[in-house]
């Protein structure tokens, strides 16, 4: 909804500025294609935004909507996300936002090595494939292993974890994790979410930057 809110605010601001011809650029393919009526709007949460913007559009002599790739629109994307995170009382002074750009990366990865030469998920994978416990573990550890294994499954010898929204997460060892993060950092892979959200996810799993 943040993209729709930002689009509505931009169109309204242009209208209040007495603009008669407007070109709207947005990095959300969903918003642009729906406003251009190339895609149908079915989400009940988005229909009011769609209707509101289309009503505002009637006040212009000409208004067009254009899609731009998210990587070419990072600043606007960050501001749109920020605007949806808090509300401002119209009677209060609008706070200023100071932004800085660094010449070096803000994040990198740090991960402890697996000292016993076992992969962190080896016991889980072995239990799922063979239904056998590691030798010498206690009954409490067996219960813990069964509980942990319930969220994982093996397909073609690759271990996956079911996320809370049923997205499958491929389990990676230390070396694979380093390669993946390096590729993301180098821009080899595109990401669905914006860079700030990806940075927060990387930090949550224990990676951080040491300048």
Written description of the protein model:
By secondary structure, this protein is an alpha+beta fold. It folds into three domains: 2-83, Nucleotidyltransferase, domain 5, CATH 3.30.420; 104-116 and 173-211, no CATH class; 121-161, no CATH class. Helix content is 41%, strand content 11%. It has helices at 2-16, 29-35, 47-57, 74-83, 122-130, 139-149, 174-186, 195-204, and strands spanning 21-26, 62-67, 152-155, 158-162, 168-170. The strands form two sheets. It has a three-stranded antiparallel sheet with strand order 3-4-5. A two-stranded parallel sheet has the order 1-2. The chain is elongated, with a radius of gyration of 24 Å. The two termini are 36 Å apart.
What is the succession of H and E elements?
A: HEHHEHHHEEEHH
Separate helix tally: 8
- CATH architectural category of the largest domain: 2-Layer Sandwich
The largest pleated sheet is described as: 3 strands, antiparallel
Using DSSP, what is the number of strands? 5
CATH superfamily of the largest domain: Ribonuclease H-like superfamily/Ribonuclease H
- The oligomeric state of the chains shown is single chain
Which whole number gives the mean pLDDT? 78
Number of domains: 3
The portion of residues assigned to helices is 40-55%
CATH topology title of the largest domain? Nucleotidyltransferase, domain 5
- Give the class-level CATH name of the largest domain: Alpha Beta
Strand order of the largest sheet: 3-4-5
Question: Into which percentage range does the β-strand content fall?
Answer: 5-15%
């Amino acid at each position: 909804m943040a993209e729709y809110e930002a689009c509505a605010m931009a169109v309204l601001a242009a209208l209040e500025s007495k603009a008669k011809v407007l070109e709207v650029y947005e990095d959300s393919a969903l918003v642009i294609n729906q406003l251009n009526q190339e895609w149908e709007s079915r989400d009940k949460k988005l229909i009011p935004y769609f209707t509101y913007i289309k009503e505002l559009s009637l006040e212009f002599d000409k208004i067009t909507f254009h899609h731009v790739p998210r990587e070419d629109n990072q600043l606007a994307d960050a501001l749109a996300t920020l605007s949806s995170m808090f509300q401002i009382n119209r009677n209060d002074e609008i706070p200023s936002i100071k932004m800085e750009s660094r010449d070096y990366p803000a994040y990198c990865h740090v991960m402890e090595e697996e000292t016993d030469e076992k992969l962190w998920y080896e016991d889980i994978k072995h239990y799922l494939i063979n239904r056998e416990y590691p030798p010498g573990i206690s009954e409490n550890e067996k219960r813990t292993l069964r509980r942990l294994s319930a969220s994982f499954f093996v397909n073609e010898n690759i271990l996956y974890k079911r996320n809370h929204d049923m997205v499958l997460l491929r389990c990676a060892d230390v070396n694979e994790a380093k390669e993946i993060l390096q590729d993301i950092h180098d821009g080899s892979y595109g990401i669905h979410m914006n860079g700030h959200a990806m940075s927060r996810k990387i930090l949550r799993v224990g990676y951080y930057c040491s300048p």
